[in-house]
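Q: Give me the 3D complex with flavin-adenine dinucleotide.
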Amino acid sequence: MNASIPSLCGRCRPALRQAAILSRRYASTAPKSAPSPKNRWIGIAIVTVAAGGTGAYLRSQGPGSVTLNQETFTKYSLVSREPVSSTSSLFTLRPRYHSDHSYDVYEDAWKTGVWSVMFKQPQLQIGRDYTPLPVTAATPLTVDEENEGYLRFFIRKDPFGEVSRYLHSLAIGADIEMRGPQIECAIPEETQEILFIAGGTGIAPALQAGYSLLNRTTEANRPRIHILWASRLKEDCLGGKGDTPLATSSQRSWFSGWFGSSGNTGQGSQVAIPQDKEKSLIVRELDGLKSQYPGQITVDYYLDEENRFISKKNISDYIESMPRSPADPRGRKLILVSGPEGFISYMAGPKLWADGRELQGPLRGIIKELDLKGWAVWKL
Ligand SMILES: Cc1cc2nc3c(=O)[nH]c(=O)nc-3n(C[C@H](O)[C@H](O)[C@H](O)COP(=O)(O)OP(=O)(O)OC[C@H]3O[C@@H](n4cnc5c(N)ncnc54)[C@H](O)[C@@H]3O)c2cc1C
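A: Here is the predicted complex, encoded as structure tokens.
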């Protein structure tokens, strides 16, 4: 997600964001065929063309709007910034001016799937994308705050990063301008299973995907999501207890795979965290979803600093444990991968940029090596 993308001077207009036909772009484990009505689910591919790119140059904007929208930047106020770990914080923002429609704008996005907003760094005139966290049972937002359009974000401070450093330096009460929502991935209605492979702050889209998918639960429809979350620091996933007791971890981290440093031998997928310690905010959010949708969401934690990495075997063990049906419609089973650029590349191959547009690129990495059948793969 820390993609280094060429400057898009003048190209980052919402008008240039195009809904793409995923059949042409997504990296799927299923054989490719000519587009057919069955491939409609692939409306998943609403690809961020320009506004989604980091490094985008922001053109000067007209007068601000009071309701979040894709055309102009809307002012929000920084309500609080609580540290989650030594490198990341939870930001709570509220619209600077009252609007009766803030909630409606978000609601559509939540129903669709995974979405983001772009924050502006006004001095440098650059923007970066961030992922709102869903409101779960563990969320400290009141109903009034929710209705007023409060948003929360889990943001990592990159010591050399322009926008994340700027956001971490702002005083409480300061204005932050944002634009959106940008739909990063529309989860098809027929989706029943999601395997979400998240690295670092890639857990924020995983929470969104879980929230969006599980909100579709009815007596007859009980979709499921399994999240594999890799963190570099124990503090980020403090108190996280994995749901797959016998999962084994990788011999090699995505980090070593990408940068070529030596691998390590891991022991298990559980983060060995004393249960008497407090839980990190994100673990509480995940537990909140679990208590809201018992049996429909499971999570396994992996920790770089303890040499516990997501392995091919962890992925294949989960896939094998799923019932198979050749009659499954496409879109029923989905693998989503989200995290830093190197993490996504290691898992599913790099995304590509061509003609000012971000494309999925071919499926590569360890997911390709697994040669999974019947699962569609989407890189966030
Ligand atoms: C859809 C989407 C959703 C996202 N959601 C979140 C989220 O919820 N939370 C979150 O924390 N992040 C999220 N991100 C990542 C976020 O958008 C930013 O990329 C991240 O915060 C870093 O931005 P920055 O401006 O601080 O760093 P940048 O200034 O972009 O720098 C990033 C890194 O690149 C290095 N770098 C920059 N320029 C060069 C250069 N010329 N040569 C070599 N190295 C260089 C810097 O040293 C730094 O380490 C998301 C990204 C996307 C695309």
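A quick observation: The two ends are 8 Å apart (CA to CA).
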